[in-house]
Amino acid sequence: MLDVAILNDLRSIVGSDNVLTEKQDLICYGYDATQMEFLPDAVVHPANPDEVSAVLKLANREKIPVFPRGAGSGFTGGALPKAGGIVLVVTRMNRILRIDTENLIAEVEPGVVTEQFQIAVEKLGLFYPPDPASLKFSTLGGNVAENAGGPRCVKYGVTRDFVMGLEVVLPTGEIIRTGTETYKAVVGYDMTRLLCGSEGTLGVITKIIFKLLPLPDAKKTMLTIFDSIDGAAKAVSTIIGNKIIPTTLEFMDYATLQCVEKRFSLGIPPEGRAVLLIEVDGDRELIEKQATRIQDLIAPLGLVQCKVARDNAESEALWKVRRLVSPSLRDVNPTKYNEDIVVPRSKVPEVIRRIEKIQQKYDIPIVNFGHAGDGNIHVNVMIDKDIPGMEAKAHEAIKEVFQAALDLNGTMSGEHGVGLAKAPYIELELSPQQIAAMKAIKHALDPNNILNPGKMFPWKEQSP
Fold it and tell me: CATH topology for 218-327?
């Protein structure tokens, strides 16, 4: 609990209406997309970098943990206040400050919703490609903190590939700017890339400079169904091997197809065992040629069905299959652990087979879908917590899924981050020397371990 004097100090910084202490308000900021919940001592809504700085200086003086938060849509508990303390919500800082159509850059505050930013730049004929599934409500500050990805990253890259510079309040309260507005800059350490993906442990982002691209002229969407996982995976490598880089290559396995078909009856052929949702974009004439070439390339690979959208309405109809996956999963079991392993593209069939063996070993449903173009598979371990022992088996299964990805030269997280959920497993992937180097950076910037303590590294070593 925070004493009255500290609460009054917070109110003097951000205004009384922007400090929440009632339990019903605190509950709203104690959870995210995981199954975990923690109650903060206070929720603070700053309006500008100076207020963020003042809050962090107060927290350092009083040794109070601070947990930065945007929309709270994360899948690993990255914004959760496990130590109580202050949840620092940046959603009041939600302005698009400028869109520079000459230099193809934009400057925004962290509370801007991802989709709203995309719509704003597209009205000017520009394009911001990163498209996490949560784009309708996730905020850009959170996207940067987690280095969010999405379906389009196979062609365009992830969030960090579009971040040119940041304004950041360091854990001790100093305000710094990193990066530049130029495409070339090699003066000093690359603090921008260090902070992108740091999960709110090294600073609070208060402004972002993004690189933009010209808006593609057109797009073409294809829903392709294969008679095997191997055929779908071979299609991915064949397409890219023939020098076609699609905008998206979304993958759904047989278990996913069963879930969707059972609930929504979309007419998926019974012999279908895997789906690729393929989209290309660019010059209208070029993408027509690419779409035809893709169909020719994948036809011998066990292709059961290929639907090609003729316009945007039909494209949206094809994407419906992918978007109906999440609501379908609840029919399997009520609780979902959504992991996001990555393996080299060619290893996707092998990791799926390993996951199938893990599923059989623990007798737990596991449903797989994701971004086949970059090997990023969302592994959904579905459980019923009311069944004794099922939750414990799920955690053992998840550990083996992570190990399977690592054995195939992959990683245990491609876009969700580590947060609290994956911190217990971080030593599977990182050596003691790597972890020590990261902790040294954390301690240098945050000597009192005020900012988002317990995230990434095991909690027992990170409590303030």
Answer: Alpha-Beta Plaits (3.30.70)
Specify the pLDDT at position 113. Answer: 98
pTM of the predicted model, to two decimals? 0.95
Distance of CA 315 to the CA centre of its chain: 24
DSSP3 helix / strand / coil % (the chain, rounded to 5): 40, 20, 40
Delimiting residues of CATH 3.30.43.10 domain(s) in the chain:
4-91
CATH class in words for 4-91: alpha beta
Q: Do residues 150 and 114 touch, judged by C-beta distance below 8 A? A: no
Residue 392's pLDDT is what? 95
In the chain, residues under CATH classification 3.30.70.2740 are 332-416
In 147-245, which residue ranges form alpha helices assigned H by DSSP?
A: 153-156, 191-195, 229-241
Assigned CATH topology for domain 332-416: Alpha-Beta Plaits (3.30.70)
Q: Where in the chain is the domain with CATH 3.30.465.10?
A: 96-214
Q: Which tens digits make up the pLDDT trace of 291-309? A: 999 999 999 999 999 999 9
Task: Please report the DSSP string for 310-367 in residue order.
Answer: SSHHHHHHHHHHHHTHHHHHTTT-SEEEEEEEE--GGGHHHHHHHHHHHHHHHT--EE
Report CA-CA distances (Å) from 42 to 53, 210, 403, 450.
17, 32, 38, 15
Strand, coil or helix: what is 10? helix
Rg, the chain, Cα only: 23
CATH of domain 96-214: 3.30.465.10
Residue 173 near residue 60 (C-beta atoms within 8 A):
yes
Provide the terminal-to-terminal Cα distance of the chain, rounded to the nearest Å: 15
CA distance 146 to 198: 7
Average pLDDT, the chain: 95
The sign of the torsion formed by the CA atoms of 393, 411, 82, 91 equals: negative
Report pLDDT digits (tens) over 210-240. 999 999 999 999 999 999 999 999 999 999 9
Q: Where in the chain is the domain with CATH 3.30.70.2190?
A: 218-327
Tell me which H or E stretch contains 105.
Answer: strand 105-108
Confidence band for 459, pLDDT divided at 50, 70 and 90: low
d(CA 175, CA 450): 16
Rounded distance between C-alpha atoms, residue 397 and residue 390, angstroms: 10
Helix (H, G, I), strand (E, B) or coil at 377: strand
pLDDT digits (tens, 9 = 90+) for 92-142: 999 999 999 999 999 999 999 999 999 999 999 999 999 999 999 999 999
For residue 321, is pLDDT > 90? no
